[in-house]
Amino acid sequence: MKELIETIVKPLVDFPDEVIVNVTEEDNRITYLLSVNESDIGKVIGKQGRVAKAIRTIVYAAGSLQQKKIIVEIKD
Hints:
The chain is α+β, with helices and mostly antiparallel strands. The protein has one domain (2-74): GMP Synthetase, Chain A, domain 3, CATH 3.30.300.20. The chain has 3 helices and 3 strands; from the N terminus they run H-E-E-H-H-E. The protein has helices at residues 2-9, 41-45, 50-62; strands at residues 20-25, 29-35, 69-74. The chain starts with a helix and ends with a strand. The relative contact order is 0.24.
């Protein structure tokens, strides 16, 4: 899943080397914390959050077979 997020985000940003995805697992949820260069945050979020929503939708669909709740956060 981490690779999927990186594959989606890296072509969108100006600094693909600074795309970092941290994963934390708890009892029944997995959190993916996406960190990008400060100047690229707007590109990852998109107008009215459309790009971020699309990323979340793809990740949720890909992880739907897991029995854990998946959360994608974008670090400011």
